[in-house]
Amino acid sequence: MQITRLATPTHETVLRVHDASIGLTGFIAVHSTKLGPAAGGLRMRPYDSEDAALTDALRLSEGMTYKNAAAGLPLGGGKAVIMGNASQKTSAQLLTFARAINTLEGKYWTAEDMGMSPSDMALLATETKYVAGLPDGPHASGDPSPITARGIFESIKVTAKHRFGNNVLTGRTIAVQGLGHVGTYLCEFLHEAGVNLILADIDAKRVAELAAKYNAQTAGPDDILTVKADIFVPCAIGAILNKDSIGKLNVAAVCGGANNQLATAEDGVRLHARDILYAPDFVANAGGIINVATEVLAIDNRAAYVDEKLAAVVDTLGRIFSRAKTLDCSPADVAVAIVDEMLADKAA
Ligand code: NAD
């Protein structure tokens, strides 16, 4: 295995991990450890080039710095990527990658991301202790989706309060895009709260199942972006809020779980210009990383820790909305500025 340290001015440490004999090329990017050890998942997917894989690792690890800080976690931001088709990954690749993680001596903790499963994490754990998302063990945190959904549900209530003047969801119409792990748990919370749901997924069978369960309306995967509703809840793919889609939205607010919902930073400004209140994704969806943090930090009373951190996230989101209103600017810009202040304070 060859490990090469890449000089990247924006990040603390970036490693290129390569072993031609087992078809392994990947990167570990540590964006910041100012608030604690960097934590963020390991992603495996085909990339067009090494540059594309490196760019993904750099972008995602920076995103983790913001997400972890906004959640009030004593964790920094990191992310790792392996180039290749996840369905063809080998044990040798994962074990070699685990040894590369060890060279950072705890500066980076990994967990599941796209292309990785709990059993892959268990395999990594045979070689490194810097891994979370394990299927079992004393602090294993399990599936983060229910906690992610809980955080989004609470965030939707805060969004409703700031957009409509109260946080009562009964009778509101909410359009949910993506009925996977997070979307499914979230629909349960929303239905319980008396919300009229409009549901969409590329999996038509899933839509039909949940629509029947919750007496919901349905929309096609593209139409969900244009349906009339109070709040749009993206729980599928990234970059869904972009130059084209924002002009078509027929809602008063957006608050969902998908990562990287804004295609560009300007899209936050576009939403603000249309008077659509946007809950920054890395704040609203922090429940998942809070759950993972209980494992990284070996928290004994997980339920109490999750409750406390989720309450703080809701509080932070409220402060973001208030400040955005005062400054008449995008909540996305305020959220980034708040984390930048936290990091600057830490450095001072
Ligand atoms: P998932 O893969 O279980 O579900 C995604 C769902 O979206 C699937 O049902 C899929 O069919 C659907 N989908 C894909 N493309 C679509 C499209 N164009 N239109 C409509 N539906 C589409 O994923 P998940 O774990 O539920 O995560 C959902 C989002 O939330 C992702 O962006 C993920 O990164 C983010 N997120 C998840 C967690 C977590 O705890 N799982 C935490 C934080 C953020």
Outline of this structure?
This protein is of the alpha/beta class and 348 residues long.
Strand and helix layout:
Blueprint: E1 2-5, E2 13-19, E3 24-32, E4 38-39, E5 42-45, H1 50-70, E6 76-83, H2 91-102, E7 108-109, H3 118-124, H4 145-164, E8 173-177, H5 181-192, E9 196-200, H6 204-214, E10 217-218, E11 231-234, H7 243-248, E12 253-254, H8 265-273, E13 277-278, H9 281-284, H10 287-296, H11 302-327, H12 331-347
Parallel strand pairs: 4-6, 4-7, 5-6, 8-9, 8-11, 9-10, 11-12, 12-13
Antiparallel strand pairs: 1-2, 2-3, 3-6
The low-confidence runs, each spanning 5 or more residues with pLDDT under 50, are: none
Radius of gyration: 20 Å
What gross morphology would you assign?
A: globular
How much strand content do the residues show?
15-25%
Q: Total number of helical segments?
A: 12
User: Which second-level CATH architecture of the largest domain applies?
Assistant: 3-Layer(aba) Sandwich
The tally of domains stands at: 2
The biggest sheet, with number of strands, parallel, antiparallel or mixed sense and barrel status, is: 7 strands, mixed
Bound ions, cofactors and other small molecules, one mention each: nicotinamide-adenine-dinucleotide
- The SS-based structural class is alpha/beta
Structure characterization notes:
By secondary structure, the chain is α/β, with parallel strands linked by helices. It folds into two domains: 108 residues, Leucine Dehydrogenase, chain A, domain 1 (Rossmann fold); 171 residues, Rossmann fold, CATH 3.40.50. 45% of the residues lie in helices and 16% in strands. The chain is built from twelve helices and 13 strands. Strands 1, 2, 3, 4, 5, 6 and 7 form a seven-stranded mixed beta sheet that branches. Strands 10-9-8-11-12-13 form a six-stranded parallel beta sheet, sandwiched between helices. Helix 6 links the parallel strand 9 and strand 10. Helix 4 crosses helix 10 and helix 11 packs across helix 12. The longest helix has 26 residues. It is globular, with a radius of gyration of 20 Å. 49% of the residues are buried. Nicotinamide-adenine-dinucleotide binds next to helix 4 and helix 5.
